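Hi both,

Apologies for the delay on this - the queue was longer than expected. I finally got the nicotinamide-adenine-dinucleotide-bound model through. Below you'll find the protein sequence and the ligand SMILES exactly as submitted, and right after that the structure tokens for the full complex including the ligand.
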Amino acid sequence: MGTLDGKVAIVSGSGRGIGREIALKLAAEGARVVVNDLDPEPAKQTLAAIEAAGGQAVSCVGSVTEEGFAERFVQTAVDEFGGLDIIVNNAGYTWDSVIQKMTDEQWDAILDVHLKAPFRILRAAQPVIAAAAKRAKEAGEPVPCRKVVNISSLAGTGGNAGQANYSSGKAGIIGLTKAMSKEWGRYNVTVNAVAFGLIKTRLTEAPAGTGGTIDVAGKEIKVGVNPNLLAAMEQMVPLGRGGTPEEAAGAVYLFCIPESDYVSGQTLVCGGGFNI
Ligand SMILES: NC(=O)c1ccc[n+]([C@@H]2O[C@H](COP(=O)([O-])OP(=O)(O)OC[C@H]3O[C@@H](n4cnc5c(N)ncnc54)[C@H](O)[C@@H]3O)[C@@H](O)[C@H]2O)c1
């Protein structure tokens, strides 16, 4: 018996890092999961890991920023697993510059992936969620609590130099979270955000300026944190270290379980005690 038996979850950007661990955790607790990633191979690997552990998943490969992706993502959950109970908006990357060097393309790309894509996914999910709530009410049954968890960052709660685009997107997702918690209370959906501090993934591990790049739609984008800065950041964390992707997934899981059914519109900081 898992805590999430019978639930259906969609997790964007679950081929690597934090998203992968969220997908594995939800599946380990009994949820059937739609895995998504921009890159097909990591998505395949997450799927295989879930199945190897005895869980159920399907993949829906593609960029969350593609036209029509949101509808396809939601429809995959409905077609393959018959519903939608948990939405985790996690996909994203960073593309840093000081403001005087930041292009419109850089600004738009980061706002698209961190804010517009979650908005579109929630918009696409609304008819499914509203219809499910209506069916339960008409049958005289309690409407099950559904869950949305949006991923933010301390860059969103406190701002970060060199990340005007990312900080704006990650602050924006908190606004979207609060608005939707008010709009979707009527469907018994809780909408919360988790703002991560330093979590050790390729976003933070790859040394910036020395070849730490990711490929987004054929464009090589530098990610990562300079190793000296990384060490300094770790020293500022009260727990004395960056978090693991598993620990990050644990914070998201807290908003997916029945014990958090009366918590909505909140932003939980997962940063080892570090907060800004
Ligand atoms: N690692 C940290 O310290 C940290 C801190 C704060 C917030 N975050 C946030 O956590 C989330 C996950 O980051 P991570 O550290 O696990 O990074 P990661 O690079 O390890 O994993 C992110 C995954 O998202 C995928 N992805 C990126 N753009 C996508 C798109 N357009 N469509 C579909 N998939 C896409 C990537 O291919 C990758 O597999 C992001 O939203 C990130 O901003 C991370």
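Main takeaway for now: The longest strand covers residues 146-153.

I'll put the files on the shared drive as well.

H.
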